[in-house]
């Protein structure tokens, strides 16, 4: 693993940790992870499946995660106030996080990419598609939602299980928190590799686990509101993937996302929760690669349509 730290990225001029994998001439895919998750949350085996299908991959730590900039001087996230309409504890928005991702593309010299976002990463990917439409070739939104309060909401019992006795502070507590999360919102039909989860938790702690940062990201999602009325403007090949058994972001969020984006393909997996089950990696990778191929073909046709043929 070769992690680079890019300084002064995007409008916020922050540091972003990233990794670039595969053939640099292959179609580029930007992988955007969810709330509190670091770039290592993308399973290596899943990345191998994507790489075998001829894709170039870029994964990175969002702000307030891993080795990217942490906003430690920002206000403490006040969710009770936010749900009551007071968003004053939000120190940034999904638009700012989208700006970070686009800034990374600028640094890497990529004019446009295929976006794959998971959970909050799907929210960010949708925001990029809306606010920076020329920078994307296709959109895959996984385990995500539209921001509308009527869809994609978590199961209250699952939230209580996730909360536990409070934010973890030690390496051991981070491991237990991530194991508890898998048990609470993972895929019931696809048992997780608990040792792999524990190993990823240890590495996450070592790279820069930040419980308050997760709160700041969560408030950013709430502060960014409902995207539904705007999603109809997205005009790229789009794939929406969701688990029917997702207890953190109800499948209604995925259905609403697909319904709002013209021509979007919706794929719902029975027994899949809020994770990426190993058994589904080959199929998920194949579907993403197929979407990338469609996006590349459309880009090629658009390039040809701009070519002017002069008379002899």
How is this fold's topology laid out?
Layout (H helix, E strand, L loop, with lengths): L3 E6 L4 E8 L6 E5 L11 H9 L3 E5 L18 H5 L10 H15 L4 E6 L1 H12 L4 E7 L13 H8 L7 H15 L8 H15 L2 H14 L3 H4 L6 E6 L7 H10 L4 E5 L11 H25 L7
Characterize the structure shown.
By secondary structure, this protein is of the alpha/beta class. It has a single domain (4-305), classed as Rossmann fold, CATH 3.40.50. The chain has eleven helices and eight strands. It has helices at 44-52, 79-83, 94-108, 120-131, 156-163, 171-185, 194-208, 211-224, 228-231, 251-260, 281-305; strands at residues 4-9, 14-21, 28-32, 56-60, 113-118, 136-142, 238-243, 265-269. An eight-stranded mixed beta sheet has the order 1-2-4-3-5-6-7-8, sandwiched between helices. Helix 1 links the parallel strand 3 (28-32) and strand 4. The longest helix has 25 residues, at 281-305. The protein is globular and about 60 Å long. The N and C termini lie far apart (54 Å). Residues 307-312 have low confidence and may be disordered.
Short description:
With 312 residues, this protein is of the alpha/beta class.
